[in-house]
Amino acid sequence: MQSHVPFGYPTPPASPTYDKYQFQPQQQPQYARHFQPVRCVPLAPEQRLGRLLEGKLQLTDILGTGAYGVVYSAIDIKTGIRYAVKCLSKYNADGTPLERRQVAYQQREINLHYKASAHSNVVSIHKIMNDVDCIYVVLEYCPEGDLFLNITERGHYVGNDLLAKQAFLQILDAVEHCHKLGIYHRDLKPENILQRTVPRTTAAVPPFT
């Protein structure tokens, strides 16, 4: 484990004050009847590859896509350390700005994740970057992929009760930590559990809903 502080941001405390990470909802401008809201053509996920964030964090690969964003693999070109970067668009697929409820959902996910990320079995959140068309959330990179992959295709858990027990206890620890903070994940399944190392498993619960 690296001992330096990534991006100048320390690991969040167990009960952080995270107001500075909260984003204000986009103000929906008032338009005259003959004006239409400004549209922004969303970039395809692959169009962001190679982009350099803050002059040092380069997006290199697509790790996954979902209804609410794209997750990239990124490397700090100065240190060589790899991160995962979640890109949350501020616009819908048709180019219209997100509605207030959609922006509030993004804020809620980021703030809950930041609040819980001090635990060793919750994916660490390192920094948030507010760009023109999206929000970048810099996360810990879990190189071994998800638990489902390691159970099925790689077979690491087949006949290994001790390893399964270790993973299960780590997940329980993370869930208990979140519940103490009043946070409930609501979508826990092997596909949504990431692993840092295998076979000495370290399970990590990813962002919340």
TrEMBL record:
<dbReference type="InterPro" id="IPR017441">
    <property type="entry name" value="Protein_kinase_ATP_BS"/>
</dbReference>
<dbReference type="GO" id="GO:0004674">
    <property type="term" value="F:protein serine/threonine kinase activity"/>
</dbReference>
<keyword id="KW-0418">Kinase</keyword>
<dbReference type="Pfam" id="PF00069">
    <property type="entry name" value="Pkinase"/>
</dbReference>
<keyword id="KW-0067">ATP-binding</keyword>
<feature type="binding site">
    <location>
        <position position="86"/>
    </location>
    <ligand>
        <name>ATP</name>
    </ligand>
</feature>
<keyword id="KW-0723">Serine/threonine-protein kinase</keyword>
<feature type="domain" description="Protein kinase">
    <location>
        <begin position="57"/>
        <end position="209"/>
    </location>
</feature>
<keyword id="KW-0547">Nucleotide-binding</keyword>
<dbReference type="GO" id="GO:0005524">
    <property type="term" value="F:ATP binding"/>
</dbReference>
<dbReference type="InterPro" id="IPR011009">
    <property type="entry name" value="Kinase-like_dom_sf"/>
</dbReference>
<keyword id="KW-0808">Transferase</keyword>
<dbReference type="InterPro" id="IPR000719">
    <property type="entry name" value="Prot_kinase_dom"/>
</dbReference>
<dbReference type="InterPro" id="IPR050205">
    <property type="entry name" value="CDPK_Ser/Thr_kinases"/>
</dbReference>
<protein>
    <recommendedName>
        <fullName>Protein kinase domain-containing protein</fullName>
    </recommendedName>
</protein>
